[in-house]
Amino acid sequence: EGVGPQEYTAIKMKIVKNMPEKIRVLGKPAFLVAATLRPETMYGQTNCWIHPSINYIAHEAINGEIFITTRRAALNMAYQGLTQNQNEVTIVAEISGQELIGIGMESPLTSYQVLYALPMLTIKEDKGTGIVTSVPSDSPDDFVALRDLKTKQPFRQKFGVKDEMVLPFEAIPIVEVPGLGNLSAPTICEKYKIQSQNDADKLKEAKDIVYNKGFYDGVMLVGPHKGKKISDIKKLVQKELTDVNQACIYME
Ligand code: A2H
Signal sequence: where (predicted)? Predict the structure, then answer.
């Protein structure tokens, strides 16, 4: 970080359930847009993460679509040709993270037909779009946050998360990592005895290992790039998604 521009894949997740009224009345296709460095992990997505107390906006994107992101990300998008009016953000609704929780979406590549926006308290407002794809098989942060929601009913209740938005969703094996198997994040969290998302130090260590090994030594287990190394296919998957308008390139 801090060494120049970072290129993300902005994943378009189409709202198909529990659309907030102020978005529905716009009568346009609307998307939660998540920024990821690992587009090939979309095969294992189980949900997306929202910060309940961040304020998001719905804005006019290219092709008559509505994107939901932070205001900051929308402004960056405006200078990258991703908004309807060049260099301009046209806000059509302001919406709190809490209001986004429980929205149901269709997302590219994953085997779950509909997945849900769920709360994560460690999301940063000043990174990406403020919306994060959740891949518990390959991200310790995602695995632990999903497990916390599954095991702690009061946590679900506090944020209005229904059981059916969480309980049926399991990590999907998508990447084989030498020494860590095909569910590298759950495996390392077990090994380091990480109890919850508050175990920040242990989580950081676990992440450093899984992210590095996953990216440089990991091998894809599913999809058309099965058998190939992650570092060789990241760009290919990004292009496949942007070619069919399910993602955009987003820089910051
Ligand atoms: B990655 P970097 Cl499977 N707040 O996506 C907190 N985290 C955020 C965020 C925000 N506002 N925006 C994006 N991120 C996460 C997938 C993934 C990611 C996997 C493995 C590694 C990985 C699934 N979550 O990232 O600080 C997103 O999680 C390794 C770092 O810009 C995004 O990619 O380097 C990554 O952090 C961007 O982090």
Answer: none
User: Which DSSP category does 114 fall into?
Assistant: S
Residue 92 CA to ligand 1 centre (angstroms): 27
Contacts (Cβ under 8 Å, ≥6 apart) of 76:
250, 251, 252
Q: Is 69 in the pocket of ligand 1 (CB under 6 A)?
A: no
Which residues are 95's β-sheet partners? 56
From the options 3.30.70.260, 3.40.50.2000, 3.90.740.10, 3.40.50.300, give the CATH code of 7-251: 3.90.740.10
Q: Pocket of ligand 1, candidates 124, 132, 252: which has the most ligand atoms within 8 Å of its Cβ, to mutate?
A: 132
Distance CA 224, CA 164 (A): 31
Residue 75 has pLDDT above 80, yes or no: yes
pTM for the model stands at: 0.97
Atom 12 in ligand 1: residue holding the nearest Cα: 128
What pLDDT does 2 receive? 58
Q: Is the CB–ligand 1 distance for residue 128 below 6 Å? A: yes
